Amino acid sequence: MTAHKENQGQFRVAAIGENKCTLESYNRRDFCKISLVTAGGAPCQLFYGSLEPIEVDRPALVLLNPLVPHSWSVPEQTVPAEGYFCVFDDKFIHTSVQLNGLANRLFTAQESPVYLPDQAELHFLTGLFAQMRAEAEIHYNDKDDLFRSYLSLILHKALQMQPAGNRADNAGSRIATAFIELLRQQFPVDLPLQPVKLKKASDFADRLAVHVNHLNMAVQKATGKSTTQHIGGQLFAEAKSLLSYTSYSIAEISYGLGFEYQSYFNRFFKKYAGIPPSDFRKTLKSINSPLKSIDG
Which helix (DSSP H) or strand (DSSP E) does residue 237 occupy? Predict the structure, then answer.
C-alpha cells in the first residue's frame, strides 16, 4: 500500500488479496476505484446502477464510480483472483486539470464500467499497475505526481478500449452530461468560502479535457441549449435565490457568483430580470413587508 499527502488527496494501490486487503476494503462513497483482474477467479456478474447485469468471465479493467450503487455476484471459487486495484478521491485528481477531465469523461454517464482488454492491452495495463505497486515502496517526494501520470495512462487506455461506434455515438452525450454535472455541483453557493470557479465554457472544457468548440457542439446537440445559456440560467437562478433568502450584500453575492466587478453582475442580472439586483431586492422587501393597520 502507498502513503499519501493529506493536502493533495488520497491514493492507494495494492495487489488483490494482498495482506487481506480486498477490493471490498475500499467500498467507500468518496473513493473512485479502478481494478485490473488479470487471472483466476470464477465468472461473476457486476450489478451496476440501472445497467443490465454485466458478465465478467475474463481479464477485465473495471472503473467503479462511488456514487453509483453496485454489487458483485461471485460464485464459490477455489482459485483466487489475481491482479491489482487502486483507489483515489476527488481531491487527488483535481490538482491536475487533464487527469480530472479524463476521470469525468470515464466515470460520468458510463455506458459500462467494465473494459475487456486484449492480450497486448492487458500486458500494458499489468505493467503499469505492477510499476505503481513497486513505486509505493519507494520514498520519493513527488510520488503523488508520478501516480497521477500512471492514472492518466490507465484512463487513456480505457478510452482507447471503448468500441469505436460507442465513442462516436455516445461521446457527445457523455460530455454534455459531464458538463451539466460539473455545473450543478457548484450550486448552491456556500458564501463566502466557496465562490463559483467555473464561469465560462472554456473553464468547463479545460476541466473535461476537451476543446471548447467540441464542448459547445456536444451540449447544443444533446440539450438544445448552448453552454452559455446553461451557465447563465444557473447563475441567474442562484442570484435570485441569494437575493431573496439571504442577507448577503450585492457585492458579496457578485463575488460568490464569480463576477470580477459588481458592475458586471449588475448588467448580467438586469439582462435576465429587466431590473438591477438592488431593485429586485427592494421589490421583494415591499412585497414581504407587513401590511399597515387601516387605523394608522
Answer: helix 227-245
Burial 91-107 (b: 16+ CB within 10 A, else e): ebbeebebbbbbbbbbb
With contact defined as beta carbons under 8 Å apart, do 13 and 133 qualify? Answer: yes
pLDDT tens digits for range 203-257: 999 888 888 998 998 888 878 889 999 999 999 999 999 999 889 999 999 999 9
Place of cell 468547463: 204
Cell 421589490, located at residue = 283
pTM: 0.58
Q: What are phi and psi of 262, to 5 degrees?
A: -65, -30
Cell 492518466 maps to which residue? 152
C-alpha torsion sign, points 250, 252, 254, 257:
negative
Residue 258: which H helix or E strand, with range? none
Distance (Å, whole) CA 84 – CA 130: 8
> What strands lie across the sheet with 32-39, from one edge to the other?
11-15, 82-88, 32-39, 60-64, 114-115
Structural contact between residues 84 and 36, judged by C-beta atoms closer than 8 angstroms: yes
User: 3-state DSSP call for residue 138?
Assistant: coil
Enumerate residues 6+ apart whose C-beta is below 8 A from 144.
4, 5, 8, 9, 11, 92
- Cell output for 200: 465560462
DSSP string, 52-100: PPEEE-S-EEEEE-TTS-EEEE----SS--EEEEEEE-HHHHHT-HHHH
Task: Specify whether the CB–CB gap between 207 and 186 falls below 8 A.
Answer: no
**Which H helix or E strand runs over 131?**
helix 119-135
The edge-to-edge listing of strands for the beta sheet with 54-56 is: 54-56, 44-48, 70-73
The one-letter amino acid code at 7 reads N
